[in-house]
Specification:
This protein has 469 residues and is α/β, with parallel strands linked by helices. It is built from 19 helices and 19 strands. It has helices spanning 3-8, 14-19, 42-57, 92-111, 132-145, 165-173, 188-193, 200-213, 231-244, 275-291, 308-314, 355-363, 377-392, 397-404, 408-411, 413-418, 420-424, 445-450, 454-457; strands at residues 64-70, 72-73, 85-86, 115-124, 146-158, 178-184, 217-224, 248-253, 294-298, 301-304, 319-321, 324-326, 332-336, 341-344, 347-351, 369-374, 394-396, 428-430, 434-437. The radius of gyration is 22 Å and the shape is globular. The protein binds iron/sulfur cluster.
Length: 469
């Protein structure tokens, strides 16, 4: 069997997928968030912000991205693994927005006069849990404290059940230019099994409105491996998605971890699809998307050829951050809100995960940092390498050697040996000057990156990570 030609035809080789269906990180960061430590304190984060302020003063700061976490949801989806608060009491947002305002003000005190922002993302939870006036107030605060550049990418996650055309128009008026719609599956039986009812007609109407309003790039999230999903039902969902023709598609594998995520305890295990069916569904999806003109960006992301993400991949300009693949060059990321994760300089930091702890810290004028990590030179080196693999599918030895003063083959002697089995399968080529992921290897890029993850290689407990397929 010629593996590469299969990939070229848009197929995922079943034997390889079964063999390499291991658990592993998604590498939205390196080191991964499970390595964050409570030893990393508010003072460490403040120092990183101060260093950024100095760099900005000298005009040499990295571009800046903001993430704002809105944790509230009106009802729970049973597959959910997010940090959220389920409530129908919209008044709870008031105190939260006050806390967010305090957090933004503290950042402004340290960072100084409005820093230029190239990217802003509202995630959750359900950001559209906030009413129009609350969203307006929050955007006003952000615009007073940071300088959102006119060309900035402003994106928001939208629960289709919480918006109509008028709300989309308000979002556009606030400056949002990208939408991400949570769909997951259109089959009524699946929607009932996961407690998320949103008919196809509702999403189609919203998509049409969003296009007419002028949103530049619309993403749809799908999940395979949900209860009551079958290859036949998922094929119908894929046809309905094709009718909508979103600019981007994120296709995630459902990871059933009820011990970690209590809402998942309401999912009936006997209704989950078998491993062969899951594999068939991912194969169906990849085949459908590629035949419909989508570019495979990597891992779980697809984009139409004229979308900025597909162009970035073609030009070797793809990047990766906590929201997944991005067109934004390596940014500092300030995470605002409960449980939000940021990356400033050579540090990662995460805010308190409970609303009470988050609010209490801010009332005492403390940044609500709960844990984080200061990266070592080895972490920085491996981060560059792993992100190059995940985004460009290639690691050029000379580039890494120039940035980190190492001899690549010597430094990574053991890793290059460990790559051999993947090389034998045709997933990766080790050339004299570079490691290059093959066309089929793109489907397994996490497994390739894991070889270079020093923390993971010394850790035999990987159950906390999701499966590759
Ligand atoms: S999946 Fe999204 S909308 Fe559903 S409960 Fe989780 S965070 Fe809320």
């Amino acid at each position: 069997m010629n593996i590469t030609s299969l990939a070229g035809a848009g197929q995922l080789p079943a034997t390889l997928a079964s063999r390499l269906d291991m658990q592993g990180p998604r590498y939205t960061s390196y080191p991964t968030a499970d390595r964050f430590s409570e030893d990393f304190a508010e003072s460490d984060y403040r120092l990183a912000l101060q260093q950024r302020a100095q760099a900005a003063h000298l005009g040499v700061a990295a571009p800046l991205s903001l993430y704002v976490h809105i944790p509230f949801c009106e009802s729970v989806c049973y597959y959910c693994a997010c940090n959220k608060v389920v409530t129908r009491q919209h008044g709870r947002a008031v105190a939260y927005l006050e806390a967010l305002e305090r957090e933004i003000a503290l950042h402004q005190e340290i960072l100084g006069p409005a820093q230029a922002v190239t990217q802003l993302h509202f995630g959750g939870g359900t950001p559209t849990f906030l009413c129009d006036e609350e969203l307006q107030g929050l955007m006003d605060t952000l615009r007073r404290s940071f300088r959102l550049l006119p060309e900035a990418e402003l994106s928001i996650e939208v629960d289709p059940r919480t918006v109509d055309r008028a709300r989309l128009e308000r979002l556009a008026a606030l400056g949002f230019n990208r939408l991400s719609l949570g769909v997951q599956d259109f089959d009524p039986a699946v929607q009932a099994a996961v407690h998320r009812i949103q008919p196809h007609a509702l999403v189609a109407q919203l998509m049409q409105s969003a296009r007419e309003i002028g949103f530049a790039s619309i993403n749809i999230d799908l999940i395979y491996g949900l209860p009551r999903q079958t290859p036949a039902s998922f094929a119908r969902t894929l046809e309905q998605v094709a009718e909508l023709r979103p600019d981007r598609i994120a296709l995630y594998a459902y990871a059933h971890l009820p011990q970690r995520f209590p809402p998942q305890r309401r999912i009936v295990p006997a209704e989950l699809p078998a491993a062969e069916d899951r594999l068939q569904m991912i194969q169906q999806a990849i085949g459908a998307f590629l035949s419909q003109g989508y570019t495979y960006i990597g891992m779980d992301h697809f984009a139409l050829a004229d979308d900025a993400l597909a162009r970035a991949k073609q030009q070797g300009q793809l990047h990766r951050n906590f929201q997944g693949y991005s067109t934004q060059a390596d940014c500092d990321l300030i995470g605002l809100g409960v449980s939000a994760i940021g990356r400033v300089g050579a540090c990662y930091s995460q805010n308190a995960k409970s609303l009470d702890a988050y609010d209490a810290a801010l009332r005492q004028r403390h940044l609500p940092v709960a844990r984080g990590l200061a990266l070592t030179p080895d972490d920085l080196l491996r981060r560059e390498l792993i992100m190059a693999l995940m985004c460009q599918g290639e690691v050029c030895f000379a580039s890494i050697e120039a940035h980190h003063a190492i001899e690549f083959r010597d430094y990574f002697r053991r890793e290059l040996e460990r790559l051999q089995p993947l090389q034998d399968l045709g997933l990766v080529h080790v050339r004299p000057d570079a490691v290059v992921v093959s066309a089929t290897g793109w489907f397994f890029v996490r497994a390739i990156a894991m070889v270079f993850d020093r923390h993971l290689q010394s850790d035999h407990h990987r159950e906390r990570f999701s499966r590759i397929f």
